[in-house]
Design brief:
- With 478 residues, the chain is mostly helical.
- The protein has two domains: 239 residues, no CATH class; 229 residues, no CATH class.
- Helices cover 83% and strands 0% of the residues.
Length: 478
Amino acid sequence: MSTNKLRLVWLVARRELRDQLRDWRVLAPMLILVFCFPILMNEFAKQTVDFLNKYSANLILERLVPFSIMIIGFFPITISLVVALESFVGEKERGTIEPMLSAPFDDWQLYFGKLLVGVVTPLVASYLSIAFYLVLITRQEKLTIPPFTIMFQLMLLTTAHAFLMVSAAIVISVQSTSVKAANLLASFIVIPVAVLMQGEAVMLFWGNEQILWLAVAGVMIIALLLIRMGIAHFEREYLLGREIDTINLSWVWRTFWKNFLGGARSLREWYGFVFQGSLRRILPAVIAVVLIAGVSVWLGYDWVIQNVSQTIAKASPDELVKLEGRISKMPNLANLRGQITAPFLFLNNARAVLSIFLGGLVSFSVLGVLFYMLNIGLIGGLFALLQLLGIQPLPLFVAGVLPHGIFEIPALMLGSAAMLYFGVAIVTPQTGKSLGEVILELLADWAKIFVGIVLPLLALAAVIEAYITPALLMNAMK
């Protein structure tokens, strides 16, 4: 990449930054939030310390400052989000987008120029707000600045949140036809990130720093995929052509149903041509999820061996006796045969595959892959647990997992592969198609796999698991 091309990115960014610094409606709320919110958080921390000292809540006191830093870094990003939301659609309403689009810039140069300013501005505001809060902390006797490792982690987390929210806001700005519509869609950015931060706050209070590193990596991956999707579906003609957003549910259904049927006139023709075409398209994803399954089983096995074995080694004889008593009180397998029915198992497994898809739908397959790894990792964890209990796991797995697993596990893998293909395809450039058309086509592809093979395999697995596996497992346990 030549220096001249990067210089054009800076020209777009400089123009955007100059317009932003001249707008007091953006600067005033940002400055107020940068310097006033840390004061409020400092007072909140002071009152919280006085309250918690009555109950000797040392763990909460140690995590109070990192939690406050994470919140302080988040709020300036939300205020600065309006700049990213107006980056393209605002230019369109002001009538200044045509000269910009007619300039000799590549699409990626325009996009990255807007993205650069959209990310740098909230990050500078967040860093200043955090620095001001740390200065206030130094004047507090009962509060201390967190260690360098935690501070570095919090700064990375703030940076990841900024990239995630701004990249999503620019995608919305490109796809919207008015600033009003873009601002209304901002709730689909702020609310999910706020929910994500609640989970991160829980991990922060529990002191689980390893999981927080995974959260930083996951957020950055999703942000990069959002940037990739924005560039892949950025079209100048689309920005100039559309004037109003309309909800055409009949068009949505027709487009989805047309792609689902694929022109087939019979079930045999659908399976022979349409379904096979979708199956061929997800074949690389199938190979990927098979490799991920092997890694997940090993990780589940290793985690149980490393953690549960240490717990058992540290347990006292009385605790081991109690554990044996709890195991002996587990319900008899023969009594469960009439309670666990095939419809219950089928719906439970179908819900698991659907949850994997929904998690992948909102995260470019990142959360979906994590859910899939948890499901598959349970196999390795259970294998290790049986070993630690002194039970031969292989005969039990052959009798208790293999009969229905030869249908259930491939169904899970195929459903997860369709989800993974969805996430990869949506960030791939597809000229001549709008983002809505691409999403509907990918939804139809996933539905073909889910209806055509996943549900039949899960139904067969449920029947075997309900009526055949228990008998084989009881015979093996004898």
